[in-house]
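Why predict the complex rather than its parts? Because the way molecules touch one another can change local conformation, and only a joint prediction can capture that. The input here totals 870 residues.
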Amino acid sequence: MNYFPDEVLEPVFDFITSHKDRNSVSLVCKSWFKIERYSRQRVFIGNCYSTCPERLIARFPGLKSLTLKGKPHFADFNLVPHDWGGFLYPWIEALAKSRIGLEELRLKRMVVSDESLELLSKSFVNFKSLVLVSCEGFTTDGLAAIAANCRFLRELDLQENEVDDHRGHWLSCFPESCTSLVSLNFACLKGEINLGALERLVARSPNLKSLRLNRAVPFDTLEKLLMQAPQLLDLGTGSYVPDPSSEAYNRLKSAIQRCKSIRSLSGFLEVNPRCMSAIYPICANLTFLNLSYAPGLSGNELTKLIQHCRKLQRLWILDYIGDKGLGVVASTCKELQELRVFPTDPLGAGNAAVTEEGLVLISAGCPKLNSLLYFCQQMTNAALITVAKNCPNFICFRLCILDPIKPDPVTNRPLDEGFGAIVESCEGLKRLSLSGLLSDQVFLYIGMYAKQLEMLSIAFAGDSDEGMLYVLNGCKKLRKLEIRDSPFGNAALLEDVGKYETMRSLWMSSCEVTLGGCKTLAEKMPSLSVEIINESQQMEFSLDDRTVDKMYLYRTLVGHRKDAPEFVWIL
Amino acid sequence: MEGGLILLGGGGGGSSGVSTKESAVSKVEVVSEASSYPAESELELGLGLSLGGSGGATGKTKPACSSSWGECGRILTAKDFPSVVSHKANNGVPSSIAVSGTKRAAESVSHEGGSPTGVGHVVGWPPIRAYRMNSLVNQAKAPRAEEDKEICEKDKLKDASKKKLYNGNKISSAVNEKGHLGFVKVNMDGIPIGRKVDLNAHSCYESLAQALEDMFLRSANSVGAEKEQVTKPSKLLDESSEFVLTYEDKEGDWMLVGDVPWRMFLSSVRRLRIMRTSEANGLAPRFHESNERQRSKPI
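Output of the joint prediction:
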């Protein structure tokens, strides 16, 4: 029923921006579906294989901004072979042929070729924004095409991508007429940069708000750039190795004083720790500090810096800060909402420099904490129970004990009770990653209490199928479940096959599910795509009793994908 | 001396018969001391957890860098952790029972060992994005505060140019601050699946070769195959082998692995390819009558 003409509803719908809300609106009735689809400008596709470009184009002719995610999350940790999929090109090809005026593209874990970047750059006149996170497959040649051809480019944001750096002059490819840049992040590039071109580019970009440099940009250039761009909100230094007695260092100190708008600071990929005091003047206003790529600082230097950052809301650091340093964070950063502590030495003999003590201190000092990623040496149930009491607002809780099956070192018990306390206390918890020694009991708690949980990551945990069943039955809002090296098998997989249609995807590797079990599931649920990633050449299609190395299943509207490589079986 | 599976042919062992399975992989020869390894070995790819230095099964803990069988790169599966997967919470399982072998091995492996031990060798653990892992591992892990990092880096670059052999200090494995990713792609002729190997986890060609052998080749005769030790040293440059290990350098040329000092190799390698010997003509003089190199690599 529609009491209002379309023209009235359209501007109303314009106020509805969240994807979830828009999706709900479109389900109300046919006419709302129609109005919504014509007015939709931003589309988010969490699994690029759940649909296809043709359907996207047909439904949303007004599309301006597209977000696509490709490979499963565990691909970030080298668990997915390279050529598995997630190719961007078919999307660009289809969009280019259509009349869609694409302006923004945000990609995560996709394979992005230079050809696709080039086609992108030439096909959409108003293209403004390209954000690539954890992608691969392209070189600086592709970036050159973007720079050269996207005349109104505002944003080029490269985060943690694997880029083949030809050390070409891609930066010089921005024409002199390009003055529209607002955000430029090339911190992940490994190669040399044409420094003169960079300086000229920044000088002619009056709207530049965000600039993140790579390691190849030396201190001297940084100082010049800051003189040109005092309006920056977000700065990522490249190399920060000044000679403290130099004129350049003095100039930087005064340039920094003029940068009154910087709220976000990162970089320090190489650093002279004795020169950090030049940064102190901007610390008071920082809301985001990312020093997780700065192993060159000491715990002391880091702590000294943080003591100036009273307004910090998000902090990413390395674990050399130590438990004591975390205590300083706790007493200084009362506004802290998000904390990430990465291991300085991830492949070392498991010696993380932080333990449960640091986390407890943080929880006591930072009651607004809602998002945590914490790599640590050990954890106790008592600490987790305390953290749960202090911080009931967690939305995202990811704990990684470096030894994946380590129990509570004090009691030698598994960490079931600790995580149980977290899920019971944090009613809004949406994302959880477990580690340490865990039995089925923790999953009982998760199924019982984690009612808002959307994403769960499990590794080396549980005793039996019961564990997985608790989760599948209890977590009604579960969207993504990823499990590795846990003893869950066919009984758990097949108990409620309809559940997977309510989820985006399920990943199980080195578990107990067999090929036969997967085949059964695929047969019962044609709306799912059940993929077996088959890296062992001895795996034969008829051997139903064999356990499967890696299974990835996802719901899809478009059946089996056609671009799967040989080693992927789609059942 | 103990050695690993031989990637590129048995030095002394000579050419064993080639099995006639369809898979091209099976043409690679594998020779071992252990008598339970028949000459015609079925080769298969396996993937599992690889736990560096898990000497628990065998007690062998020689460092990887010598030509003996190093524990790095030995592949275990979840079945090697029976106490992890099936034991229940109630028994006071010591914290690292599955890695205890590792730690024992770690203690006896001197600094020469080079490859990281402990949980670092479980595939995909700790769960850190590969990009970040490469960056962290590439950074010089100097003791902080006391050291002037600037000077330290300059010295390291100088050391590299002096072609010093790996001295066992993990810090010095971060040779090139600029440009070198820890993980490089590896492809083997005849196998559709490419892999990635972390070069920073190795300190010498032997250990790299062993890791590649584990990745791409395995005797498939018994379930416990991975537990048996093959004891011939790998011979990367052995002429008689079916396959040869090559790499693409930063100039795009394909070179034979092993000719240059390890660190120099690290600084110029872009990716690896295990090439059929028959296709490797022209890469090195030993495959030609003449001794001329078609391409010369400047030092």
